[in-house]
Specification:
About 35% of the residues lie in helices and about 25% in strands. The strands form 2 sheets. Strands 3-2-1-4-5-6 form a 6-stranded parallel β-sheet, sandwiched between helices. A 5-stranded antiparallel β-sheet has the order 7-8-11-9-10.
Length: about 220
C-alpha cells in the first residue's frame, strides 16, 4: 500500500482518487470547494478542503510524508505551477501533474514534475491503474475494467510453454505478444512458445485477471 495526495477534485482528480482507494491505497483528496470534498468523503481515505498554494496547509496535511502527489487540475496554470513547486520543496518523491497546453506541460516539466498528463490522452482511471501497479511497465486501457499490460514474465512461467501453462484457461488472459530481452516484439506467440528469463509479455484481460498474473512469483 502506498500513500497518495490528489489535489483538485474535478472529474479527472475524482477518478484518480477513487480508483487508487479501490486499489487499497491510502488516499488524501484535497480541493478548495467544500461541497466537492463532502461528495468524495466516503470514497477516499480522507477528504479535506484546503488551498494547496499555501505551504502551511500542505505541511499540516502531512503531504511531505506521501509517496506520490497528483496535481489534478489545469484551469489555472499559475496555481498549478505554484502547487507543484510547493510539493517539490517539501520533497514529495513523485509528482504527477495534469496540463492544459503544451506550454503548461513544459513549465511543469522544467520545475520538476515527474509525469505530465492531458485528460484527452490519459483518463483518470488509466493513470490510477498505472500508479497503483508500479511493476506494470505499460498500460493500455480498452473498455472500462479491461486493458493490455506489459510486464516481466513471472518466474513461475520461465522454462514452460504457453500450452503447458494453459494460460487462457487458468488465468483468463491472452498473451498477445512477447518480447525477448533486447529483441523485437513477437506478436501472437504460439502454444509452443517457451518463456525465458528476461522476457516481456503483453497480457490482454480484465484488471483483476491481469493483477493476478502480476502477483505471480
Amino acid at each position: 500500500m502506498e500513500s497518495f495526495v490528489v489535489i483538485g477534485l474535478g472529474r479527472f482528480g475524482s477518478a484518480v482518487a477513487e480508483r487508487l482507494c479501490q486499489e487499497g491505497h491510502q488516499v488524501l483528496a484535497v480541493d478548495v470547494d467544500e461541497k466537492v470534498v463532502q461528495n468524495m468523503a466516503d470514497k477516499v481515505t480522507q477528504a479535506v478542503a484546503g488551498d494547496c498554494q499555501e505551504m502551511d496547509v500542505l505541511r499540516a496535511l502531512g503531504v511531505q510524508d506521501m509517496n506520490c502527489a497528483v496535481v489534478a487540475f489545469s484551469n489555472d496554470i499559475g496555481k498549478s505551477v505554484l502547487v507543484t513547486l510547493n510539493l517539490k520543496e517539501l520533497g514529495v518523491p513523485r509528482i504527477i501533474c495534469k496540463a492544459r497546453t503544451a506550454t503548461h506541460e513544459e513549465l511543469l516539466r522544467r520545475i520538476g514534475a515527474d509525469k505530465v498528463v492531458f485528460p484527452e490522452r490519459e483518463s483518470g482511471w488509466n493513470l490510477a491503474q498505472a500508479l497503483s501497479n508500479r511493476e506494470i511497465l505499460n498500460y493500455v486501457g480498452l473498455a472500462e475494467g479491461y486493458g493490455i499490460v506489459k510486464l516481466d514474465v513471472p518466474l513461475a512461467w520461465v522454462g514452460k510453454t504457453i500450452g503447458q501453462l494453459q494460460i487462457r484457461k487458468k488465468y483468463q488472459v491472452n498473451i498477445i505478444a512477447v518480447q525477448r530481452s533486447g529483441g523485437a516484439i513477437q506478436p501472437a506467440p504460439a502454444e509452443s512458445h517457451l518463456f525465458r528469463k528476461g522476457d516481456m509479455i503483453f497480457s490482454l484481460g480484465s484488471t483483476e485477471d491481469n493483477d493476478r498474473v502480476l502477483k505471480l512469483e
